[in-house]
Amino acid sequence: RNQFITNHVADGSHQWLAVLNERTISSYAFYGQTSIELNPQWQLTSGIRYTEDEKEVLMDRLWVVIDFDEDDPTDEFVIPARFNEQNPPQVETFDKITWNVSLDFTPDEDRLIYGRLATGYRSGGISPGAPEGYESYDDEELTSLELGY
User: Fold this and answer.
1) What is the sign of the dihedral through the CA atoms of 130, 57, 25 and 50?
2) What is the pLDDT of residue 119?
3) Are 48 and 99 in contact (CB under 8 A)?
4) By mean pLDDT, which of 37-46, 60-69, 126-135 is the weakest?
């Protein structure tokens, strides 16, 4: 997301700020699942997944001070100052192993009763321009229990 901000300075000049963000996100995952029929009515299923997310943000700030006479619309723009602030890239890596296990019971061909226990994960991230100490946020984890008929 690119941001452009302007401030009117008391002496008639304008100050511009452009914040340029470049993001790169790489995500990889490996997954396996297997089901075992214990008998014609019972089936056990389990799975495991490894996920790795790498997030990189490069943020540049460009300050430009533009001086002109507001009372004379034909006055030329003069750019007396330009400041470029480039920060080193922020890189965060998040990884997690998640799993699931379920047990299905089929008493007859019209009914299914099941239970499933699973873990889940959403990776953290980077908030460019956030106050110091809040530049990144942690991943989120959950465990769910599902019962159904």
Assistant:
1) negative
2) 98
3) yes
4) 60-69
In this structure, what DSSP letter does residue 13 have? Answer: -
Nearest by Cα to 90 from 56, 123, 60: 56
Reported pTM = 0.67
Residues in the chain: 149
Shortest CA distance to 49 belongs to which of 29, 69, 65, 63? 29
Collect all residues with Cβ–Cβ distance below 8 Å to 5 and sequence separation of at least 6: 16, 17, 18, 19
Amino acid at 99: W
Task: Please state, as a whole number, how many other Cβ atoms lie within 10 Å of the Cβ of residue 126.
Answer: 19
CA distance linking residue 62 with residue 88, whole number of Å: 15
Rounded CA-CA distance 135/118 in Å is 30
